[in-house]
Design goal:
This protein is mostly beta strands and 72 residues long. The protein has one domain (2-32, 39-64). The protein is built from no helices and seven strands. It has strands spanning 2-7, 13-17, 19-21, 26-28, 42-50, 56-60, 70-71. Strands 1, 2, 5, 6 and 7 form a five-stranded antiparallel sheet that branches. A two-stranded antiparallel ribbon has the order 3-4. The protein is globular and about 40 Å long.
Length: 72
């Protein structure tokens, strides 16, 4: 599973790979923002997941989606 982050205004994109945490029962990932990245708002704009049975799911998030997240 992975999510894609995009810096507001476009142009800068990052992929964050997720792993399942058996304790929290959630898929989790970390992105360390480089010190020279500059200020700005980042948004989750794409989510992809698949399972061992071959099922796949993806979505492009939008501002009204319950998956939509942004952070600064």
């Amino acid at each position: 599973a992975y999510v894609k982050l995009q810096k507001e205004g476009g142009g800068v994109e990052r992929t964050i790979f997720l792993t399942f945490n058996a304790v929290s029962q959630r898929y989790e990932g970390t992105y360390n923002v480089p010190s020279d990245a500059g200020n700005g708002k980042w948004e989750v704009f794409f989510v992809y997941a698949s399972d061992k049975a071959g099922n796949k799911y993806y979505t492009i998030t939008e501002g009204n989606s319950r998956l939509y997240q942004s952070f600064t």
